[in-house]
Design a protein that fits this description.
heterodimer, A: alpha+beta, five-stranded mixed β-sheet, two-stranded antiparallel sheet, disordered C terminus, B: alpha/beta, five-stranded parallel β-sheet, 5 helices, 5 strands, globular
Chain lengths: 319, 144
């Protein structure tokens, strides 16, 4: 038995859509379901052949379109990363000079300043410092996204590194009456990229210092668990709402909106930190409650994986 | 007491604003900028002519890269004290330069206090190592 007139008409329309390179036709899904039912009941082999042929053609067209679209997207993403890389590189040097020279003038090394000159220079300094941070983060994102994040993995002491980074934040913390409380287990050296993990620690500690209320305590812990070296930074800041927590590791997300100090973040720091930790085959997570505070923790493997092939070892060193 | 003799520095950097920035930093450290170069070839010529205590050498110089300049200078002046000036993306080249004998590197985007500390500590370590290797001590004074 042949397909009924209505169904045959639908099939013709679907073929027109395929030949015209158009998207999925209106009601096409339902037509297939009706055709399958029709074939199952009436054993219309001609219709079955037509249906299968149609579906094969359909999938081939969709696959080809997707492959073309995917290829275009990959190319666009590559171009975006190259643009970001060039732009960031060419912006960073002049910004470094603007920030540095305004900092030198603010120290009055070049002569005394009036109040007004100090105010103007402070604005130039702060704006160029923030722009430099943004440019550096954009450059990091472009490097990570283009797969050019080469980790220099070496056995090193996480405890020494954390102590070193906390010293850098000591002044900023003390200016808000914030204390660091530390609890470090005696861990053997673990494999990691010192500069990149320092960047992650700086991000977590820096965020905690910015968001923690005055006269509060930031607790930093280091311990080993289930083959991972773990580091956590706990603050008594405003906390992050449960619905926002999955979003904060995305690009251009700012924790808790504006920092209480008025200082702006780039909204890229946690996204970069997460990718750095994942490139180490670890993970970065947050536990937080509004009005209570946040604990950001990262874990990296305490040992290079045994039995890993040379290729896998190489891959381990790549983002 | 006589004023300590200033350390003589050459700054090799193709971007004028970066040269100005580095000059402001080193002149605040009991150093005198005796020469400024904007290209690799110019840097080598100026170094031969002025023989400074310190060369601040940008990696990305035109006509001869910082790496090439460093290689030539260290071959001709094995004790040349060179600090590489860089941006973050040049990390691989920086490591090569350290392997070629650069004393240290500084990143232009780091805070001034860190740049000054890096220069001072590297210079002090260099002077100490020279004093240990040769007696009596070498002439240069410590940077402040």
């Amino acid at each position: 038995m042949k397909a009924t007139g209505a169904i045959a008409q639908h099939i013709q329309e679907i073929f027109k859509c395929i030949q015209g390179g158009q998207g999925w036709c209106k009601d096409e899904g339902q037509v297939y379901v009706a055709l399958l039912d029709h074939w199952a009941v009436l054993k219309d082999y001609e219709l079955k052949h037509q249906l299968l042929k149609n579906l094969v053609l359909r999938y081939a067209t969709i696959e080809r379109n997707l492959a073309e679209l995917n290829s275009k997207l990959v190319e666009l993403n590559h171009l975006k990363n190259r643009f970001l890389g060039f732009a960031a590189h060419d912006l960073r040097n002049p910004l470094s000079s603007i920030r540095g020279l305004s900092e030198i003038m603010l120290t009055e090394m070049t002569g005394p300043l009036t109040e007004e000159q100090r105010e103007f220079l402070s604005t130039i300094y702060a704006a160029s410092r923030d722009m430099l941070a943004l440019v550096n983060d954009l450059l990091d994102i472009s490097v990570i996204e283009s797969g050019r994040l080469d980790l220099k993995i070496q056995q090193d002491s996480l405890k020494t590194l954390i102590r070193e980074r906390l010293r850098i934040f000591k002044l900023a913390a003390e200016s808000k009456g914030i204390q660091f409380s530390t609890d470090f287990e005696d861990l053997p050296e673990v494999p990691f990229d010192r500069n990149r993990i320092a960047q992650v620690i700086d991000n977590l500690v820096g965020n905690a210092v910015k968001l923690a209320p005055a006269e509060s305590t930031i607790e930093v812990r280091l311990w080993q668990q289930a083959g991972f070296a773990k580091v956590s930074v706990q603050d008594e800041g405003p906390g992050i709402a449960a619905e926002d927590q999955p979003l904060i590791f995305g690009e251009f997300q700012r924790i808790g909106g504006q920092h209480p100090s008025g200082e702006k973040g780039t909204g890229l720091g946690l996204a970069i930190a997460k990718r750095i930790i994942e490139a180490h085959r670890g993970y970065l997570e947050v536990r937080s409650a509004l009005g209570v505070g946040s604990t950001f923790s990262f874990a990296i493997p305490a040992e290079v994986e045994h039995g890993a092939s040379q290729e896998a070892q190489g891959d381990y060193c790549r983002g | 007491m006589a004023q300590a003799k200033k350390l003589r520095v050459i700054i090799a950097e193709d971007e004028s604003h970066s040269r100005l920035f580095l000059k402001a930093i080193v002149t605040s450290m009991n150093c005198e900028v005796v020469g400024e170069a904007g290209t690799g070839v110019e840097t080598i010529e100026l170094y031969r002519q002025l023989k400074p205590h310190i060369l601040l050498l940008d990696i990305n110089l035109p006509n001869k890269t910082g790496e090439e300049v460093l290689k030539e200078l260290r071959a001709e002046f094995p004790r040349a004290f060179v600090i590489i000036v860089t941006s973050v993306s040049d990390q691989e080249t920086v490591e090569k330069c350290i392997g070629l004998g650069a004393a240290n590197y500084i990143r232009k985007d780091t805070p001034i206090a860190d740049i000054k500390l890096a220069i001072k500590e590297t210079w002090d370590a260099y002077v100490t190592s020279l004093r240990q290797a040769t007696a009596p001590s070498p002439s240069p004074n410590n940077v402040s």
